[in-house]
Design goal:
Number of strands: 0
InterPro entries: Mercury-R_MerC
Helix content: over 70%
Distance between the termini: 21 Å
Keywords: Membrane, Transmembrane, Transmembrane helix
Shape: elongated
GO cellular component, one term: membrane
Bound molecules: zinc ion
Low-confidence stretches: none
Protein name: MerC mercury resistance protein
Largest sheet: none
Radius of gyration: 17 Å
Pfam family, one: MerC
């Protein structure tokens, strides 16, 4: 039997997974848009701000925190480790992308962001299935 407390905790995790989906989605959009903006607008101030690495550094911290509070929890509590593995590989690729430049940076960003996105999507679906809570869908 589930208590109201674990139900509430579970709902929080689902919400955090949703937030993480938006964050990793934002990274994917940024990685796709950055080269396009660069090609269209050249090397203006706006372009420099948009394409530089600080966007990833800025996204990296909350993404890491959300991985800790969602997919890491699922792996510990339910031994459901697939999202954690995907998220770990995704974050490593994102981290590695900070040290490279040019098209490879975008490719790695899109790949890493997508893996984190899939990880949270799988985790969210798993948690929902665990509790059969229709109010969350
Ligand atoms: Zn990005």
């Amino acid at each position: 039997m589930e208590t109201a407390f674990t139900d509430c905790l579970h709902m929080q995790t689902v919400k955090q997974d949703t937030a993480a989906l938006w964050l990793s989605g934002l990274c994917i959009v940024h990685c796709i848009a950055a080269p396009v903006v660069f090609l269209l607008a050249g090397t203006g101030l706006l372009t420099t701000a948009f394409t530089s690495e600080w966007v990833h550094v800025l996204l990296f911290v909350p993404m890491l925190v959300l991985i800790g509070s969602t997919v890491f929890k699922s792996a510990k509590r339910y031994q459901y480790r697939t999202p954690l593995k995907l998220a770990a590989i995704g974050m490593l690729i994102l981290l590695a992308s900070l040290s490279v430049h040019g098209p490879i940076e975008s490719v790695m960003g899109i790949l890493g962001g997508s893996l984190v996105f899939i990880a949270h999507w799988k985790n969210r679906r798993f948690l929902k299935a665990q509790f059969h809570d229709s109010a969350l869908s």
